[in-house]
Design goal:
Strand content of chain A: 5-15%
Largest sheet of chain A: 5 strands, mixed
Structural class of chain A: alpha/beta
Largest interface: A-B, 54 and 44 residues
Shape of chain B: flat
Distance between the termini of chain A: 51 Å
CATH topology of chain B: MetI-like fold
CATH architecture of chain B: Orthogonal Bundle
Strand content of chain B: under 5%
Oligomer: heterodimer
Helix content of chain A: 40-55%
Distance between the termini of chain B: 54 Å
Amino acid sequence: MEPSGQPGMTRRRFVQLASGLIVATACGGTGTEPGEPGGDAAPAPSSSIVPPSGQLSGDLRILQWSHFVPRHDQWFDDFATAWGEEVGVNVSVDHIDLAELGTRLSAEIAAGEGHDLVELLSPPSAFEPSVLDLTDLNEEVRGRFGQQTELCTRSSFNPTTGKFYGFCHGWVPDPGDYRRSMWEQIGLPDGPSTYQELLEGGTRIREEQGVHMGIGMSNEIDSNMAARAMIWSFGGSVQDADENVVLNSPETVEAVDYMARLFQATMTPEVFAWNAASNNQGLIAGEFSYILNSISAYRTAQQANPDVADDVFFTPALRGPGGTGLASQHVIPIYVVPTHAQNPDAAQEFILNLVANYSAATYNTELYTFPAFRDTVPDLDDWLTRDPFGSVPEDKLALLTDAESWSTTVGHPGPANAAIGEVFNTFVLPQMMARAARGETSPQEAVVAADAEVRRIFARWRERGLVGGQG
Amino acid sequence: MSTPPATAAGTAGTAEPGGRYLLDRKGFLARVMLLPAVVYIVALVAVPFFLAIAYSLSDVTVGDPSFDFVGLRNFATVVGDPTFRRALLNTVLITVVAMALVVVLAKVLALVLVQDFRGKWVVRLLVLLPWTTPTSLATIAWVWLLDSLFSPIDWVLRQLGLLEGNLYWLGNEGLAMTSVIAVQTWRIVPLAAVIIMAGLSAIPSDINDAAKVDGAGFWRTLFEITIPMTLPVIAVATLFGAIVVFTDMAVVFVLTRGGPVDATQVLSSWAFFRGIQGGDLAQGAAIALFLFPVLLVFAVLILRSAKRMEVM
């Protein structure tokens, strides 16, 4: 394959690659619909209404993202409308870009009015003072549908205040995506399984095949996920289980040092300009040997470049020197009911119905979103081992059946509290990685600077009573 | 049927309707006419401004609008933050360099566009497009032009044999800053050119005619007549453009998101990241308020330039 940016790139090749870029970017950071299920694929689950516990009426205004799979929004809107008609509630659903959800909710809280139910895609812990405690709802759903996936609980419950500030109904795995044909040539057809293999294999692929890899170190979501996965797998973390800051550790320094070496050996400066669409663009264009992303980049490739899609396979979280392998959840849909909500009862009844119909929800996301309550989607493992959406081979997604065992929340090993949220949204960790990779500072200095910033952030949220721990 | 002639407004003892009487009073009418502008300024400028001051002195977050006074603590924290200092420096640097380029390019463009040539109106329309295009949309186009892998600029340079591989415009610190300045310059030049064109059109033709008769060439006319006479207009265009660039968030947010690391971070983008996305609304407000003193100076200078033009 022709390496990127080489002088010999033909006009036709350039146009082909640019076309792939347009498709990938048009699909945003998360991808697009790959197509209809195959002929003998499992049929789409049907939806049903759970009767409400009491009389409902009035309006229910829901705000959530425009899902990267158009099929999901169509199903969701029809489901919400049908539910409303059944229980006597006038439901309206507004879809906006995922990046605007937090800003919009902030504005509505400041105004004291707005939607009754708002879905965010990262833990909404900072909004805790202005949203209802959903402990009763969480307990009710557990009673009906079994245990909630732990990473979902840790992304919606604040142990310091004892409050469920949100209801997490699903989560999205973040596996590694690799090009089998490239890794096969260096004797690793199943892709890397450790960070050491990633470094050695990636280096050889770049040297022998001229293809680099893409792991972002920029001010955006995928870079945040990658930095966390690496730090955890090397044994470090931002906080401990009791919410004390522990970023400055030998393990974190080792992870940062590793990232700097990985950049030097396998990547180009494009990773410092990474955005949410970069994974998709590069993978579709066949420019990367390995990326970290949800299956959205692959689903996009299925439509835009089927040959590349057939060559894309997945790895679970890579293991670090100590044998630990952890990845962050990609996005995590969590509902909040603001205190200004006019119809909180209907909002909570709707959530309960959504969970009851999560098979249909998961299916209509084309297996992008996993259930927070595993028992609600009994066919999930079957779908993953026999992808209804055209994977070749059909068991390509089978490794995701145990994704829960190597996935965790952004606050790991503690909760996804408000301080973790600010650390995440001001990109402290990707910048720490980038500073070392660019040679601006040593790994140790980069970690020390990031640790100071994290401590400042934690101290401020502790003053507000939302974060535990002391140091 | 004929109607009696109207008497002078407000004459004593006449039975004029009250509304008519009020509208004939100049003082009242002036206030009525000014009211929409005043309401607009109060609602969309004054209230947010004083709200930002209040926020900056509090511990308000996106999820907790309750007000607890913390004094100047947010300002002290912000000033001690290296990212803030970098953002402040970048904001000034981008504004100064972009405006220097804008003055030169806009002046050249204005001189070209005031000439008579075939298709002048089409050219003028095309030149104005960067200004009329929404900033975020235009910047998305630049994101594509400067893409790390598929940049058409890189491709052209490769075809010309001037480049091997890619430049990584937005992944390299110096090139990323250059890109931000280039985009800001690109979008401000049309507006500045149109303003300067208006100034050029206002120069009495007899002055230029007299200069020609006296044998003044292009450069002499430019430096001794055109530039001096349009200087107040150029000043207004420059100051107006500087305000737009100084307060802009969209270009940096869409093009680089402040990166690589914080190399292109500016005050407005950092205020957004810290205040809205990070949830610390109070600190975000404190960061944004650092824009105010500079904007105040710009505003005073603009008003003085405008007054000088009135005198002329």
